[in-house]
Amino acid sequence: MIMNVLIAGDFCPLNRVADIFTQGDFKSVLGDIKCIISAVDYSIVNFECPVTKGKVKPIDKSGPNHRCSEEGIDAVRWAGFNCVTLANNHFLDYGKDGVENTLEACKKYGIDTVGGGKNLHEASKILYKEVDGKTLALINCCEHEFSIATEDTAGSNPLNPIQQYYAIKEAKEKANYVLVIVHGGHEHHQLPSPRMQETYRFFIDSGADAVVNGHQHCYSGYEIYNGRPIFYGLGNLCFDYPHIFNKPWNEGYMIELTLESNSDIKFKLIPYFQCNKEPRIQLLQDDRIFRNKISTLNEIISSPTKLENKLNNFYLTRKERSLDVYQPYFGNKMLYWLYRHHFLPKMISKKQLLKIYNILECESHRDKYIAIFKDKFNIK
Fold it and tell me: Which residue range(s) make up the domain with 368?
């Protein structure tokens, strides 16, 4: 028995798309992909923001707080998606109310959810879905960024390879196929880190039939590891941002997996442009450039040395700006401008930077400071 499963990247209906959805016009944005989504046995998309109603307070965090109206979930239903993944860095942007409103909207429109919940127990649940006598198990988790559920608070299921190992083992006993979907990686970098590669390969070794990653806002390549595919980034499916056109942000692909017992997993990549000059998803008519880009990325992914070098180069391009966050001027636009233009001196010494490095590198030090910051900002 064959099962066809489609997985899509980040869906966050903002700006022009939000205005269109408010008018109930889903076709102009999603019309090109509706037939593809509806043709498979089961389809999944990452829902990258909570549903909110009325006035609701955003949580304190680093980075933007995103949200949408109930029309966002209605649009997902209209397009033909069966399930949304909720383990991502924006699910908790509007606190408990946003989480509960999202879950209620999904229930209202008949959309399955995985990776998010009112507490860690709910967020970490495996989703089992039976299709034509075969069972698919979905495990969804994300890296730690202001969205993580606890035993008592709402949010997303955290990336924890030990816990995912046990989840995969459980799912392998109950399901025919096990799919792990992870939200993580470096934004705007089209390659995984060696840590990501090691972790996702471990998930395959633990019994997963495929691993799919998202979050970077640009697509990445893939590899076949021990006969099973690992996709390192799908890109945005629908994520409108002002004045970003003809960039990696506007490119992505969906994956159609063909799952069959006792057989290698076949797959098809479906590339598109999204929210470019027009706020819609447009399938590529000529994908030769896309295929060449994927081949180049895959070649780098297959070489540990090249992958490490590309990552180090990416880090170096962001070295100074990354260290600036520790300067006392950071957060004040005028002082920071003066500092960046060398009118103000650096205030953090080499000795202080070494202390910060030690805190970040050492697991025990990091655990301590995370606990201290959680207490200071009343993060449960």
Answer: 319-376
